[in-house]
Design a protein that fits this description.
Length: 229
């Protein structure tokens, strides 16, 4: 069982960030359940020794919310005492993992990252064996020299950490969304089109869509199966 920890906000309409992850895991034949970081932290703490995925969300990693402090504490415990248990952070989830490990490494991007983006692979391994492109939807970035970095993204003229592992662990993060596809991204773009234009001057026609090329969730499921043998 993979426990999906959803945080805040919606991908579009009433679709929370855990929905499409669970849908993808179902397609891969692996059981999962969605838990809320806001409502279910007591339950989440019981699964410290089981695989989990932390979703994207609309909260900044350093904001002052009680649920977020609890989640940070849970992650810190996992990093220090349960680092062999497979863990994956996506977008906000990756930023949170990185910032708990290397505090202060997450900050605002110079521009919004949305749409199909190329992956600049630095090396392969673990769950990042083939990741050439993926869908992006974030405006915070990770810049850290403490993480084991597998690939980079680019925002404006600046590079940022895309895919990483916390050294010596099975704890991974990716700024991109391996659960998104072209259909989902079209719906997300339309749902947020007014906000994207108002706050970031991004028009729908300028958002690149197409076939993404990554196998992060497939590789993560394989790791989970291996770790439970």
């Amino acid at each position: 069982m993979i426990h999906i920890i959803k945080t805040t906000g919606y991908a579009y309409e009433n679709t929370d960030y855990g929905f499409h992850i669970k849908e993808k895991l179902n397609q891969l034949g692996y059981p999962s359940r969605i838990l809320s970081a806001i409502k279910d932290m007591d339950t989440i703490k019981k699964y410290i020794n089981e695989p989990l995925i932390i979703t994207g969300g609309s909260t900044g990693v350093m904001e002052d919310f009680e649920w977020l402090h609890e989640l940070r504490s849970f992650i810190k415990d996992r990093i220090h005492h349960h680092k062999s248990i497979p863990t994956l952070g996506i977008c906000f989830g990756s930023q949170l993992l990185a910032d708990v490990f290397d505090e202060g490494c997450v900050g605002p991007a110079s521009m919004m990252n949305i749409g199909l983006k190329p992956i600049h692979q630095l090396k392969s391994g673990h769950i990042f064996n083939t990741m050439e492109s993926a869908y992006s939807f974030h405006f915070h970035i990770i810049t850290s020299t403490q993480l084991e970095v597998f690939s980079e993204g680019v925002t404006g003229k600046s590079k940022f950490v895309n895919a990483f592992r916390i050294p010596g662990s099975n704890i991974f993060g990716t700024q991109f969304h391996p659960e998104f596809d072209e259909y989902i991204m079209k719906k997300l773009s339309m749902y947020y089109k007014d906000w994207l234009m108002k706050d970031f001057s991004i028009a729908i026609k300028d958002i690149l869509l197409g076939q993404e090329n990554n196998t992060v969730l497939e590789e993560f499921v394989a790791l989970c199966k291996q770790s439970t043998k």
